[in-house]
Amino acid sequence: MKKLHLRRSTVEALIFLLVLVTVFSLLGSRMGSGNMLKTIMNTAHDLLLNTVFYLMGITVLTGALSKLMSEFGVVTLLERFLRPLMKPLYNLPGVAALGAVMTFLSDNPAIIALSKDKTFSSYFKKYQLISLTNFGTAFGMGFVVMITMIGYGQLTGALVGLFGAFCGSVISTRIMQHSCLKTYPKLDSPVQGAVAETLEDEPVEEVRKDGIFMRFLNAVLDGGKNGVELGLQIIPGVLIITTAVIMITFGAGPSGVYDGSSSQGVPILPWLAEKIHWVFEWLFGFEHMELIAFPMTALGAVGASLGLLPTFNAAGILDGNAIAVFTAIGMCWSGFLSTHTAMLDSLGYRKVISKAIGAHAIAGLCAGVIAHFLFLLVSLI
Hints:
Number of strands: 0
Mean pLDDT: 83
Shape: globular
Low-confidence stretches: 193-207
Largest sheet: none
Number of helices: 19
Distance between the termini: 68 Å
Structural class: mainly alpha
């Protein structure tokens, strides 16, 4: 057994070294090894200063705003307003609307914190509770994504993308529920003792001893701290993933010479995308194949994909349609490949991870397609 494990680890090490050497040799042969290393460092440094801190500023402000909305009852009001839509659209009890609001204002794991609450989960059947992973992820970091996109002066594109992400959330949740019930019929049972839906309308009285000013101040500071934590969490993804994606997406600088500047690389990804460019042009309306880097990065981390926007904008390829598609896919996927496994594992349903990932992959693509064609329709009006 030990020999088998030793052989496997040796093979993995050799394969890893082979891939690593191949990638760096390919990049270094085109860019020059010195320029390649300088570009990697300069790109990461540029992303840290001009992208991460910008995104952190947004997360701090949105964190404070979301905490204020929660403190002064806006979240509860939104939840009550959205509740009637939950059953016909998502086949979920009304309280699930709270999960959508919370993940939109924060990030994917917020839905897991709610799911583990016994009172909250008692409204659900097992397959419905599992589908919350897909449902919540489709709104993860939505507030940050929207504010970032609007910051590029594309309000219409951002709103169209929001609708696309909403459609994607419905598709993902429904596919997940159908797939779970088809494979595991026993999941069509209550999580705990049944709770009457009428209990959802009972008011919850909270005792607030502090005055309005102190509640406002505490909410702003606590929300800002949460925003800082979220901003710190996206640093590894932005620096590592985005740097790697830029290195295989963009070419030399404007002069056509590699000089070690940031955002240079070897355009491997666009070269591959060009082989099936008609697919991306028809589905998403992408005229520049470099734009494919955004949805691919959003698979792992939406914060990292947002880090690509300044480079796209500087290259002059960031238009309204791209913003619409990016918003839809970025919100709907929001790094689901890096979160779905951990989220379902924490709920104790590891066996359905592949179904959740498959459903969400389909939904994200649908969200992008819907956003593209809807943007075309809006542009004609």
